[in-house]
Amino acid sequence: MRAFLRGSMLVSLCLVLPLLAQSKVGVELADVSDNRINHDMMRGSLEMRIKLTGDDLDRALASRIVIKEATDDLGTQLMQESRVPDFSPAEYNAMGLQVSVAQPPRKAKTVKVKGTVELYVPSRDPNAIVTIDKPLAKLDKPLSAPKLKSAKLTITPMSRDGYAKAQEARKLTPEKIEQLKIKARAEGASESEVELMAGLAEAFGSIEGPLDEGSVALSGKSIDFERIFRIDFLAADGEAVHMTSRGSSTRDDGVTIMTLQPSDALPPNAPMRITLLTDKARMSFPFELTVALP
Q1: Do the beta carbons of residue 198 and residue 246 sit within 8 Å?
Q2: Fold of 5-124+281-292
């Protein structure tokens, strides 16, 4: 393995601002790590840590970089996958983002990356935030709110019994694991990858236990949860209640179960705030940069 680090590199980008012509976003390439590995299932990658700067970042709750094209000067395609990454919350990364492409050949000297920087700014859309009063008053029944209905979003708060029944129904049996293997093979996975996937599925399934005391469980369609940036419960002062842990589990049945563990008992009838990833709440900035390889 050979690793190279390069720091404090400022890349000049031409940003096209389709929504706010006066908006400015800067992109600082903090460092580059060219990890060349080729051993069994392990492959190297070109890692880039990018910091965003600009006035609009003050209003953004999150950001992400979507790579659409990555090629080296030899013409090698370096795109690893087409999956769009999740938005990364600003409080966790200070608008610093990690992106990667496949490892370039040793003879390559530069890599050109094209894509978009996306900001999530919910203040741009009044429908991006939904507040629900007394969300836990009726468990095991879908929440009701005009904005949820308008967004065609269905979320159900679960009782402890409801959670236990759902976990029992989702338990991975030998038959289900075999079906996962068959599906993975059909998608072109090698036998070693199939066995690794099956082992991970069994391991994760075995650690799911009963709902902890004081925790909140929410269920809904996976495609609905993909449109949710964050779910909070609000204290009397309107601030979000601190959560010691957040987790979600999605299975092939297309259902996601999310669990939230507050640091203290939730206030009686604490409102729920759902922040949605709407189109109007997003800002997109195309960019192109060329990274010199050591």
Answers
A1: no
A2: Immunoglobulin-like (2.60.40)
